Amino acid sequence: MKPSDQNPEAASARFIATKAIGRVLGEGIQLEIALEQQTGYYDLSPRDRAFARLLISSVFRRLGQIDLVLSKFLDRDPPAFVKNVLRLGTAQILILKTPAHAAVGETVSLVKGHKKYRAFSGLVNAVLRKVDQKGKSVFAASSPQDNLPRWIARRWEKAYGKAAMRRMALQLTQIPPLDISVKKDASDWAQKLGGELLMDRSVRLSEIGSVSELQGYEDGAWWVQDLAASLPVASLGDISGLKVLDLCAAPGGKTLQLAAKGAELTALDRSGARLKRVHENLKRTGLKADIIEADVLEWDDPNRDYDIVLLDAPCSATGTYRRHPDVLQSKSPKLVSDLVKLQDKLLDRAQEWVKPGGLLVYCTCSLQPEEGVERAQKFLEKHDKFALNPITSDQFPDLPNEAFLDGMLQILPHFLSSNGGMDGFFTAKFVCNF
């Protein structure tokens, strides 16, 4: 009996994983969209959905190294589907340590089950057997930085230096822990959940399981939020009773933070579907905010007197690659260029709602300097009524000095690497002087 005959669902998980990888690499779409649109994905059991995701993340975390290994045993590239099947099989052999006979057998069965590519089953069998016999030494001689797209590696090296780029590449190969933000008593919740308290505000869990089954989830005591993503709001200090406008708010991590800190909060986003999640989390946590579905560039509020306006701008999201390794493969220099234009427009709009003496916070989950420090500098050049409100190491003493860029905050993924790293994140604060 073939392995796939023993567990048809697992075979389906492999097929769905192969198709999703193909759509990300071939069409540049987000993995979540590729999975949502994949027929049969939600028919899988939770266990097999998790297995499909494990296969996908293993491929994307080591894509460059996998392709380097395969290049030694392929005279020319086969069709994309077959190449992605080979990537999947190679990941199982070299990364997941699946017994070779099982990995080869399952992968060959995947090709045989596809009428269009059945003729490639012999090739797949031969290549994967060579991967098992000779590929391990090739893999061992490769480098984590081989997994970064070249344009990204060059940009990061120029912006942060070669040593930092290499450490960022290494972080890509590591499966990240889970961070949660709590409404109150972070230290107490770290003990309850068996987690680690980081920077006196975030609880980090190394063993996750089902998030919704963890203590405190149903009671709304906390929400999932990477430590780095919590820092923009943390930099504001006491905001109780202040009037705050949260722009591009969904999926709502900062919305919950702002509400938990006692702000009089208005949260706005153009996506009704994404705002649904914000509503659900507000209800679960018992926190309050006025939610508005509108486009920032079109919405108008005559009461332009907010104490704080927070703009978590749409961006390339390259800083989230620890948790979403596919993100590095679905971006391009042109996409970043287009996003930069949108970010400038959003900043121009956001500043209109800040009252004299108030603060504008600009942040992105990006590692591209053109979406971070360069946007902040251009904003200050254009709007002379604003000045930088510095973020200093006194506020975040646990972070390395290189996080602080002339009063702005740039988190790199290898910061706190001994604790599991962080998302890449940029934050700048501006004060309106008149």
Description:
The chain is an alpha/beta fold. Helix content is 44%, strand content 15%. The chain is built from 16 helices and 13 strands. It has helices at 3-6, 8-27, 31-36, 46-61, 63-71, 80-94, 100-112, 121-141, 150-160, 162-172, 186-193, 227-234, 253-260, 272-285, 333-350, 373-382; strands at 178-182, 196-198, 202-205, 222-224, 243-247, 264-269, 290-293, 306-312, 354-364, 386-388, 404-405, 408-411, 425-432. The strands form two sheets. Strands 5, 6, 7, 8, 9, 10, 11, 12 and 13 form a nine-stranded mixed beta sheet that branches. The longest helix is centred in the N-terminal third of the chain and has 21 residues, at 121-141. The termini are far apart. Residues 1-6 have low confidence and may be disordered.
